Every structure is written in C-alpha cells, then in structure tokens.
TrEMBL record:
HAMAP family: KdpC. The keyword ATP-binding applies. It comes from Stutzerimonas chloritidismutans. InterPro entries: KdpC. This is Potassium-transporting ATPase KdpC subunit. Keywords: ATP-binding, Cell membrane, Ion transport, Membrane, Nucleotide-binding, Potassium, Potassium transport, Transmembrane, Transmembrane helix, Transport. Part of the high-affinity ATP-driven potassium transport (or Kdp) system, which catalyzes the hydrolysis of ATP coupled with the electrogenic transport of potassium into the cytoplasm. This subunit acts as a catalytic chaperone that increases the ATP-binding affinity of the ATP-hydrolyzing subunit KdpB by the formation of a transient KdpB/KdpC/ATP ternary complex. It is found in: Cell membrane.
Amino acid sequence: MFKHIRPALSALILMTLITGVLYPLSVTAVAQLAFAEQANGSLVRDQQGQVRGSALLAQPFEGPEWFHPRPSAASYATVASGASNLAPSNPLLVDQVRERVSEWNGTAQRPVPMELVTTSGSGLDPHLTLAAAKFQAASVAAARGVSEQALNRLIQAQLTMPLVGPAIVNVLALNLALADNPQPDSAE
C-alpha cells in the first residue's frame, strides 16, 4: 500500500513546492523588477508624501468642489467590487440612471455622459473620459469660485492617452492637482 501512496505524496509535495512556493515567488520577483510601481499598488502620494489612494482604484469624493468618478455598485469597496448585474431591461437600472441624471441636472440640451450615470464592470474604475470630466467642470468651478477655462486647462494637463480607447483622466490625480492648486486662475 505504501508503494502506491509514496508516489502520490511525492507528487503532491513537488507540485505544492512548484505551484505554491516557486511560481508565486518567481512571479513576485519579476513583478518587483519589471513593474514595481504597479506591483506595489500604483500608490498616489501628495506633496507631503502621504498616500492618498491608488491610481488603479476609484474612491468617492464628497461635495461639489471635487470631480467625481463613475458610480460604484459596491460603494467603492474593493472586497465587494463588481457590477450591479442589472440588465438594460431591468426597471431598477432605469430608475437608478434617471436618478443619477437628475442629480447631475441633466437635460436634453445638456445630456449627462453615460459613464456618470452607469456603474463600471468592477465598480472601481478610476478614470473618466474627457467629456465626463469636462461635464463636471462647470459645477466644480462654481463651487470653488474659479473659471471653467482654468479647470479645463487642469483637466487637459491630467489627460492621458491609453493604447486603446479614448483619452482618459484619472479622477484622483485630477483632484490632487486641484487640491495642490485650489485657485488655478492664479496660475495664468
């Protein structure tokens, strides 16, 4: 009997070492060497060096003086991240979208960008398109008492172009730039 158990135990121990120790250690080593910033969470720090968040995860911002990311079905919690899984035909989704359009004061003449009224697949999307960021510029400018043109320049300064898709703005980076320069008009 031990003749049959010994090879099975040996295979179990060998595979445990390979898949449970060697492979994770090698992947971690490659990640730390080649992609250290991403492997360590893409942390965003303020001017004092304090961690303010991650460039990879959305976080909520309260108040009209800040730019806001896409809505989150999981309240921006990483453990519970995920989509709402509501079908387009679901009346609850329709009600949620209508409520969000109303919150943004959307009208037929001033339609709200879709990404500001629908959740992302993960519920943690940290980026907005240029259109969604510019849509918020007027209300942020009014809340801060600055010109919309100054905020649009700040948005343009934070704009990045991914390999695929439209230009995007990281909401955390944009708000940190706004916090570092609360009166962007004075930089003119």
